[in-house]
Protein 1
Amino acid sequence: MTEDTSPTPAPAVVPSGPRVGLFATCLVDLMRPSVGFATVKLLTDAGCVVEVPQAQTCCGQPAYNSGDSTDARDIAKNVIAVFEGFDYVVAPSGSCAGMISHHYPRLFEGDAAWKARAEALAGKTHELISFLADVLKADVAPPDLAATATYHDSCSGLRELGIKTQPRALLDKVGGLKLVEGAIPETCCGFGGLFCVKYPDISEKMVDAKTDDILKTEADLLLAGDLGCLMNMAGRLKRRGSDVQVRHIAEVLAGMTDTPAIGEGEEEGTG
């Protein structure tokens, strides 16, 4: 009998870090699933055990912003029940993360039991880039990307969650990527969830001002951490005949830039 001298395969590396529930967000699920896949890769590479609960729903922000507190509370109760067992909840969106971490406790004023559960979930809910940089202090090692990029600071990420330097620090690790700042990176793009529906004329002027600034940078890549903002700006750039590619920062950090950019090809809506 011939002795088998082939090398023994190395055992698979199983993450043993914190158990993270991925709050995928409606827009990522329906319009840009590649952002979800990129998020899972980044979290797994950082040592997290990532789960994506199938029972998750919208965070309730559209109802909340419309003044429909009753429906917003019902949605929040489901999110709390689904995610409260995880060590952390992470969303690739400052908007959704801000809703859970800042507004859920306010929904349950006068209901001590649910307010306590909302506060507990709020305390462990984070936007993706902030989680990697501030909580995990992860040693992210993104692949090279030859491009000139400019970055948009979303309103919720910047103003509610204090996300400003973190994405730029991580992007600085991308070899070949040159980051150029616009004159108004912190200015709202005009999306604002229901704002662009209620006030389309004002929203259009805001996104025109934003895209004017993006084009002046002469960047060939626009990045941000909120898909709503990115879709809004991508749509306006395309209508203006621009070739600027638009992507979520997670896609660049995870090295998943082989899919069509936002607003291009057939990627949107396939998930």
Protein 2
Amino acid sequence: MKQFPAIIISLMLLTTTISAQDTGGTLRPYSPWSFFGGLNYLYNADGDGVTEVPGMNPDGSPGGLDSAPSPLVGLVGAEYRLPVWKPGVYFAPSASLFMLAYLWADDRALPAEIENRTAFVPSLLLDASFLYTIEKDRFLYSFGGGPALLIRYGFLESGVSSDEKSYDSDMPAGEQVEEINSWLWSSLRWFYPMVQAGIRYRLTNGWGAGASLRAGLPVFNLWADSDTGIADSLMLIFCLTITPPSGKKITVSEDTTPPPPSVQEGLTIE
């Protein structure tokens, strides 16, 4: 299911390519809207530097790290480009939706495996980037960045009782979810400056097919009380994008300039 958004986008791109038709003298500019799907890699620094992982503990709890490996989750979203200042510069807000799973351990929220998760966390990334674009032939290159808000709120995982306790915690699951939400919203952990680059190719029917790479920088680690390092919670987002043509068509008019007047028979100009 993690690859589902990317599969859908790939099928849409394939359908668009197959249905492409020659537009003749019709110019079809891009719509300001783009739609995308892809994968979000969220770096988890828990366990960095650990060379030995203990086994089963005497109390029956599993050994090893409390958290899961760095999650790689699917996401879908949309972007709107608004021209500003001068040609080629755009304000490009976007929204991306993805799902995460967390547990509470070591006094912090950590990514969790499916079987160990306490909180199901729908996540909405609201990006307010500015882009500089360069168009060359059929290709459009874009570069930029800006501030983003990562809106996350956890809910008790279905099948987990609010009174249930994990092996290594005396805190009930319901209270753990409250601690997870408190941690996610503290120390500006919802603030992510973004940088990005992308490429778009114009198909013959006016549609655009492309790809983008975005990085969310966890600057909150500079002041948050954390010993996991500056790179913890870094986001790397790779997406395939589609951009429909604008509904407005501009038809290139035919040359209506009258031909030079011909000399009439029998007419003499002295």
Protein 3
Amino acid sequence: MKFSDLDAFADGKVLAGVVANIGYLVINNPERHNAISLAMYEAGAARVAAMAADPSARLLVIQGAGGKAFASGADISKFEKERSSSEDVAIYSTATKIFYDAVFGFPKPTIAMIQGYCIGGGMGLAVACDLRICEDRSRFAVPAAKLGVGYGFEGVKRLADLVGPSMVKEIFFTARQFTADEAHEMGLVNRVMPVHMLSAYVADYATRIAENAPLTMASIKAITHELHKPDSDRDLARIEAMVTGCFESEDYVEGRRAFMEKRKPAFKGR
């Protein structure tokens, strides 16, 4: 994938599109380490929603431009304009929540390809993804305590679901940067790759996922989301319908035939 293959939004600060059944969302603000403004949050949410509804997008890869940062969170240079009053803070918080929720609720697999720094809201974006693959020079931090800002319940819970409450406290209390190896050890990232191998590895990873049965992947993602809900809130009827739908699908027939014929299946998501 080349950035020129994607469409530009938010004055070019957000790039998005579908290439070879893989959806891409690029934070394109490298001169500010891919800090995210209000307009970028809004554009990002809209593009994620569009790709969620696009059957040609089998998964979503999120990355930052420039090679030095995945995302460094909110653009602090715009705080005076975008977060100077309680009303502004409410608008900004709503926009960030809509974006992160859109990524977390994306019904297909999501991958955060992390180059360089993953800071603050960038961590929130990465944590909202299903899988996180970083390079060995990546650094992670949530410096909220150095800025005096609050951090919402859902973002903290998503992080705690990955690394546990004790590590969440260390991340927030110290506000320090963690290395890629530390991130892997605590369960924050799935894979750590050498810098020169990351892009190719993620491209191969995404292609493998895109070739698999969409209905099966959607059901597994739905199940993992239900696991985090209280028993009384779980929609098991919906899950059962999704699982049954897999067995009643054309893809199930195709999968069996491909196995018997010793060839790669051509799934259609129906």
Protein 4
Amino acid sequence: MDAKLEKEQSVKFASAPAADKPVIGVPCSLMDMPSGRMKVHGAAERYIEVLAKLYGCMPIQIPAIVDCINYDDLAARLDGLMLTGGRAIVEPYHFGGTPFPPDEPIDPGRDAVVIGMIRACVAAEVPIFGSCRGIQEMNVALGGSLHYRVHMMDGKLDHRMPRGENIPREEIFKLRHGIEMEEGSSFAEMAGATEVMVNSLHGQAVDRLASDLEVTAISTDGIIEGVRLKNDTTFTVGVQWHAEVDPHGHQLSGRLYEEFVAAATKRSGSR
């Protein structure tokens, strides 16, 4: 992302009154600190900064604690829901899949909170934007299932992030494969093309599509890369790539953020 442009956007929104900023819920993952002595509820810095600094929103982190959240009440207080990526993946019992091996990272608190929040936000017509793990959570919450290990499927690329030590950020998030969109679709119009390149850092992927979702983008090897709620009255969209990485340098990612924030701002102004 252009540093000058990012700074200009940050200055533009810095003086905006808090009351004018749409409130975006960002569900947390429960993560181990490097010391191993404690866990923290958190979301990756980039998701928070893009919402706050580039698009003038007020991100509010939602802890991965099931017992303290009334989903319908919280949805009514939000103008949007941002679903982030995460190291742990959605547990298969949520969609009737084969149990994970014991060494697979899991985050049951996040699973439960996010699934509950997605359902509540869809019912309340709160805008939702899911990225990476987020598209998978949306599909599961609405009744779909997931592929566990895409790289082990015949004819599929390895969609996981690069393995190894000290890999530069630029290498991790570089554009890796193409996605295809139907001509005349909302995604194609936002992208200005029917095929674009995207980054790729995921092991799971959408398998059986939830009946309330429709496909908006597919990778060149046949993986679902974009979905949208059927008959969407607001903005309920998930993508498999990390749109937060470079929303000003990647046209489709930037337009998706703009549409999401516009929908959240509209909801904020109507309440």
